[in-house]
């Protein structure tokens, strides 16, 4: 943690306030439950402190927590006993230590917002009153849960699972978060492959902390007889004569369903849903005041992502919490009754009437407003939430040999094969290669392709439905049997006629046309068809002349419908003269966009970071922007440039995106810039 943080006046104010409360306030839970249990369990150290406590006639409700909660307070309690200090000092300093660690974890989850964190967390009335005035220990399990979330965000899943189980051991209520962890991993495709790591951490943590507790019959008895567990059933509606509808379990199950419906969550969305669950639980139950600390990390993240109104509403909610908690606290009533300077009717006015219920009602109303705002701002407006409703569809058209498959594979490598479905127009040829119809018709003729089937399948994938399609084998020239293709977060439809039909163009969020220099196209097509697809050189050369009329009539006009035209050009006209002598070919990229392509920032980055030569021009009455880019660049430079131009897009990329060198890397960068713009436009 940055040491400057400890010198901030707001931090010092909060620290002094905490120390003062530890020294001068002795809450009822400490004197009645926690400190007697900790005192007894440390007089004779044993692996079964719950059994020792009950054997000595202790209350069964005193310490319904697992080993982690006991071990968290044990060192400070032992030090206080050794120094003959009051045990409340050990309890309080443990909470302060956990508080500082929580601040450090929140700085990792919400970076760069130190002033806000000090204001909305370190000086939070909920944290200070709940922990130091009322004496509840919920800060310990919430700290462990926040630590698990931090490791989860960093994809360190074994540690995340291990720390999560320690949170459950500290307080069983944290188990509410486990299904959301599992749903997140199941639906986040880049992370799904690491689910076994989380399970390893969960298993190791269970063996180390939960299983030993379950072997203690006294500990299990104290947990089962904890009256707090039954509070979730107190809000219920009668259905008939003998049935009740429990609202809290119902709301929890509905939140689980809402989380399951989101097919591609990110961490912010997952964290927001988790916070909503805890917030709704404490709002709909006669909760212990300590339970409200469960929602603090998510409320802090929400305030950091929102505006001042969110901070103001959360502050009102916190103040109502403080007033409501003090009105139901016996210690507060005793203090008021013993204050001789207050009027005699004060106690009855504050504690004997409906004031506490009215304050609680106002607090719940404010909490519901917060929950609605969190759902509206952090969930329904989240890019991943919207993407989960409909895939992002990219259309790629171009002549034969223009590099459609190579380009599609490069884009697929950025998002990961697990998140991308590809639909190839070659799979919709009407006949196998051996059929006589190809003697009178070329593949470039729309009549030789099942474009209606191609369009229907693309519409189905766009609607998140699965399809059955064949695959054209270029080696054998035959179609395979139909197989299922699942829709995905991203769908790339490529083919000779990908932009030919209006219904196809309506499906795309981004349409791309590859317009390669004709001499280069013929060179690459000759290399591919001869060496990869088994055609003879004479047959390929003859196809150029035969296909030219159809190319001019059906293929090239599609460029007018593309949002982005990428043209691969030779750096000089005679570049292919030595192509057979194993020397590298050098190209330039001409990118033409109807939507604009962040041309100014892109030019600065390409020149300053990648060291390229860039010329910019406008065409068609300034409705199109054209960039001509020359030079060599590395995959590392492309990644750095992407982080500068469109950093938000990285949330959608694979954990380890496959960046390319050279012109293909430039195509990746320009395409990502357009995807970022298309996502922004789509979410307006």
Automatic annotation (TrEMBL):
Catalytic class of the enzyme: transferase
Keyword entries, A-Z: ATP-binding, Calvin cycle, Kinase, Membrane, Nucleotide-binding, Photosynthesis, Transferase, Transmembrane, Transmembrane helix
Reaction equation(s) it catalyzes: D-ribulose 5-phosphate + ATP = D-ribulose 1,5-bisphosphate + ADP + H(+)
Matching InterPro entries: Glycosyltransferase_ALG3, P-loop_NTPase, PRK, PRK/URK
Gene3D superfamilies: P-loop containing nucleotide triphosphate hydrolases
Record pathway: Carbohydrate biosynthesis; Calvin cycle
TM region positions: 73-106, 118-137, 157-185, 197-224, 244-260, 272-297, 309-328, 349-375
SUPFAM superfamilies according to UniProt: P-loop containing nucleoside triphosphate hydrolases
Pfam family, one: ALG3
Every Phosphoribulokinase/uridine kinase domain range: 393-567
Signal peptide: none
One GO term of the biological process aspect: reductive pentose-phosphate cycle
Molecular function via GO: ATP binding; mannosyltransferase activity; phosphoribulokinase activity
EC number: 2.7.1.19
Family of the protein in this entry: Belongs to the phosphoribulokinase family.
Protein's UniProt name: Phosphoribulokinase
Species of provenance: Pseudomonas fluorescens
Gene: udk
């Amino acid at each position: 943690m940055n040491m400057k943080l400890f010198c901030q006046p707001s931090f010092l104010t909060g620290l002094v306030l905490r120390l003062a409360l530890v020294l001068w306030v002795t809450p009822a839970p400490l004197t009645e439950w926690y400190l007697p249990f900790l005192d007894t369990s440390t007089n004779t150290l044993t692996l079964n402190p719950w059994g020792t406590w009950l054997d000595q006639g202790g209350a069964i409700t005193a310490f319904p927590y697992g080993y982690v909660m006991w071990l968290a307070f044990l060192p400070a309690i032992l030090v206080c006993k050794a120094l003959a200090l009051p045990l409340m000092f050990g309890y309080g300093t443990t909470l302060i230590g956990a508080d500082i660690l929580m601040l450090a974890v929140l700085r990792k989850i919400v970076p760069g917002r130190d002033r806000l964190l000090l204001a909305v967390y370190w000086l939070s009335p909920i944290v200070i009153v709940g922990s130091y005035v009322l004496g509840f220990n919920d800060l310990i399990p919430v700290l462990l849960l926040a630590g698990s979330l931090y490791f989860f965000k960093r994809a360190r899943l074994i540690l995340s699972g291990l720390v999560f189980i320690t949170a459950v051991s500290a307080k069983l209520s944290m188990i509410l978060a486990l299904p959301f962890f599992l749903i997140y991993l199941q639906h986040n495709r880049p992370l799904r492959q690491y689910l076994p790591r989380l399970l390893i951490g969960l298993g190791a943590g269970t063996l180390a902390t939960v299983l030993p507790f379950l072997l203690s019959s006294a500990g299990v008895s104290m947990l089962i007889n904890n009256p707090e567990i039954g509070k979730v059933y107190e809000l219920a509606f009668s259905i008939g004569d003998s049935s009740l509808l429990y609202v809290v379990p119902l709301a929890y199950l509905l939140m689980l369903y809402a989380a399951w419906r989101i097919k591609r969550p990110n961490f912010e969305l997952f964290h927001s849903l988790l916070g909503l669950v805890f917030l709704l639980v404490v709002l709909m139950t006669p909760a212990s005041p300590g339970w409200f600390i469960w929602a603090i990390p998510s409320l802090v993240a929400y305030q950091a992502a929102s505006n001042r109104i969110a901070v103001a509403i959360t502050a009102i909610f916190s103040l109502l919490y403080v007033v409501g908690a003090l009105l139901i606290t016996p210690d507060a009533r005793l203090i008021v009754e013993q204050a001789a300077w207050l009027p005699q009717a004060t106690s009855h006015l504050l504690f004997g009437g409906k004031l506490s219920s009215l304050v609680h009602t106002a607090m719940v109303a404010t909490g519901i407003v917060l929950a609605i705002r969190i759902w509206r701002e952090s969930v329904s407006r989240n890019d991943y939430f919207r993407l989960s409703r409909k895939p992002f569809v990219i259309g790629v058209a171009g002549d034969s040999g223009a590099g459609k498959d190579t380009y599609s594979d490069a884009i697929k490598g950025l998002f990961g094969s697990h998140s991308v479905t590809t639909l190839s127009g070659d799979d919709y040829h009407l006949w196998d290669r051996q059929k006589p119809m190809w003697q009178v018709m070329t593949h470039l003729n729309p009549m030789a392709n099942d474009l209606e089937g191609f369009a229907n399948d693309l519409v189905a994938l766009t609607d998140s439905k699965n399809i059955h399609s064949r695959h054209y084998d270029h080696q054998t020239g035959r179609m395979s049997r139909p197989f299922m293709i699942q829709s995905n977060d991203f769908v790339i439809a490529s083919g000779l006629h990908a932009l030919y039909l209006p219904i196809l163009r309506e499906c795309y969020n981004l349409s791309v046309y590859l317009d390669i220099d004709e001499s280069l196209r013929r060179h690459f097509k000759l290399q591919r068809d001869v060496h990869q697809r088994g055609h003879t050189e004479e047959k390929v050369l003859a196809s150029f002349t035969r296909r030219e009329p159809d190319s001019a009539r059906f293929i090239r006009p599609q460029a007018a419908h593309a949002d982005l035209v990428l043209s691969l050009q030779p750096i000089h006209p005679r570049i292919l003269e030595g192509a057979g002598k194993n020397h590298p070919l050098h190209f330039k990229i001409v990118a033409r966009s109807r939507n604009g392509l962040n041309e100014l920032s892109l030019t600065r980055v390409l020149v300053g970071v990648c060291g390229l030569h860039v010329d910019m021009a406008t065409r068609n009455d300034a409705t199109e922007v054209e960039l001509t880019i020359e030079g060599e660049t590395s995959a590392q430079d492309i990644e750095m440039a992407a982080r500068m131009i469109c950093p938000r897009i990285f949330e959608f990329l694979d954990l380890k995106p496959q960046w390319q060198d050279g012109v293909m890397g430039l195509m990746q960068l320009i395409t990502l810039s357009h995807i970022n713009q298309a996502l922004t436009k789509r979410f307006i």
